[in-house]
Write a structure and sequence with these properties.
Blueprint (H helix, E strand, L loop, with lengths): L14 E5 L19 H13 L4 E4 L4 H7 L7 E3 L4 E3 L5 E2 L5 H17 L4 E5 L2 E5 L7 H14 L4 E5 L2 E5 L5 H9 L8 E6 L5 H9 L3 E5 L8 E3 L2 H18 L4
Parallel strand pairs: 1-2, 1-10, 2-3, 10-11, 11-12
Antiparallel strand pairs: 3-4, 4-5, 6-7, 7-9, 8-9
Bound molecules: magnesium ion (MG).
Magnesium ion binds next to loops.
Enzyme class: hydrolase
Catalytic activity: alpha,alpha-trehalose 6-phosphate + H2O = alpha,alpha-trehalose + phosphate
GO molecular function: metal ion binding; trehalose-phosphatase activity
């Protein structure tokens, strides 16, 4: 585990970036709807996306539609819903078929549970349904037992846990699968992949970059397969700032 992030050794033509969104580009807030990526960070991302000829993707638990809103005006390669849906470097969207009726049935159960408890937020993201308990952490046990119960009734769904959120996904694809898909295609193929994330579901991405001899950067504490670690999201943002300044300065004048 290394605590100093590489910078001078990186080259824009040889690097591919994969960034998680919440807890990585955006600070985590109580209401998932209220999370935003600061304008300055959007600008750093834009610079790196341009400097790498488009080899920068956002890999998040959010849907691609939500990511587009948070990163506007950028429309980036993206993997949404933990790798279930994906938009490649050419803008083509891949979304597997899933049991939409089952998603709605599960959503109805979570809505019912959420309305009984102040502070719980349920959320449908195409192929997955989440329950957020950040505003009422004392309900974690109850929320998880409900999710486990539902998971046993819908064996084709997979239970995912994150920071103050539990999710049932209709797909078994993960962030690592999405990252590997990107790395097989232009403009990502042949580059050094760098994946940055902060949560349990990012571990699949860290394992995938390790297999590709790339760099995984874990933000914050916790067991991880990442090769590097930084203490906070601000440390990562400082690195983004430095890298985007260096690569802007290095760009040839037109
Ligand atoms: Mg995150």
């Amino acid at each position: 585990m290394t605590e100093t992030l590489p910078r001078d050794s990186l080259h824009p033509a040889k690097t591919a970036f994969f960034f998680d969104c919440d807890g990585t580009l955006a600070a985590i807030v109580d209401q998932p709807d209220a999370a935003r990526v600061e304008t300055e960070i959007v600008e750093f991302v834009r610079i790196l996306h341009e400097a790498t000829d488009g080899a920068l993707a956002v890999v998040s638990g959010r849907s691609i539609a939500q990511l587009d809103v948070m990163l506007a005006p950028l429309v980036l390669p993206a993997a949404g819903v933990h790798g279930v849906e994906r938009r490649d470097g050419a803008g083509t969207i891949y979304r597997p078929e899933f049991d939409a009726a089952a998603v709605l049935q599960i959503a109805a159960r979570l809505d019912e549970f959420a309305t009984q408890h102040e502070g719980l937020v349920s959320e449908v993201k195409s192929a997955s349904v989440a329950i957020h308990y950040r505003m009422c952490p004392e309900l974690e046990g109850e929320a998880l037992s409900l999710m486990t119960d539902i998971a046993s009734q819908y064996p084709e769904f997979r239970l995912l846990r994150g920071k103050m959120v539990a999710e049932l996904s209709a797909s078994h694809r993960n962030k690592g699968d999405a990252l590997e898909d990107f790395m097989r295609e232009a403009p990502f193929a042949g580059r050094l992949p760098i994946f940055v994330g902060d949560d349990v579901t990012d571990e699949d991405g860290f394992v995938a970059v390790r297999k590709l001899n790339g760099i995984g950067i874990k933000i914050g504490a916790g067991t991880t397969s990442a090769t590097h670690r930084v203490g906070t999201l601000h440390d990562f943002h400082d690195w983004l700032r430095q890298l985007s300044q260096t690569w802007t300065a290095a760009a040839p004048a037109l």
